[in-house]
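Lab notebook, bench 4. The sequencing result for the construct came back, and we need a structural model before the next group meeting so we can plan mutations. Quick request posted to the team channel:

Model the 3D structure of this chain.
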Amino acid sequence: MKTLVIVTHPSLETSVINKRWTEELAKYPEKYTIHELHKAYPDGNIDVEKEQQLVEAHGNLVFQFPIYWFNCPPLLKKWLDEVLTYGWAFGSKGGDKLKNRKVALAVSAGATEENYREEGRYRYTLAQVLAPFEISFLYCDADYRSYFASYGTEAEPGENEPGAAVETSASKLETNALAYLDFVDSL
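Done. Here's the predicted structure in C-alpha cell form:
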C-alpha cells in the first residue's frame, strides 16, 4: 500500500525544506500520496469522514510540518483533534484504525540542532518537544516510528563567498531531501 504523507504548511510555496521534500515525494506517485491540508481545507473546515477514509486507504502515515512554537501548525492540531475520534482511532468500540499502522513525523525546525539539547538554548531535545505526538499515536496503538528532522532553516548565512554558500545550501538541501525519502521508505 502507498504511504500517505499529510503535509501541513500554511505557505508551502514559499517554504524551502517542506517544499523540497514535497517535490521529491511527488516524483514517486506510485509510492506516496501527498495530502496538503491547507490546500484541501483553505477554510479550515475538515471533512472528517473523507480524512478517515483517506487514512484507511493507505498503509504508512507520515505527518510533515514545520515546528510552530514548539508544536505543529494549528490546522494539523485541528486535524488530529477532529479525525482521531473515539471509535475510529481509539476506544473499545472499533477504535482500531491506527492499530499497528506505521506512523512517523517529518519536521523542519528553524533553530539549529544545538539549540535542541538539554544544554542548548531551549533546554529540550526535539524528541522531547515531539513527545505528545508519540504518546498520542501510542495511545491509538499505532507503530510510532519516530521522526525525520531538518534543523536550522532560520540559520544565519555562513562566512563563505555568496556563490559558494548557495552551492553548499543547494547541495545540503538535495542530500536532505534524499535522506527524507530513505526515512519514509524505511518505515
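Residues 156-167 have pLDDT under 50 and may be disordered.
Will bring this to the meeting.
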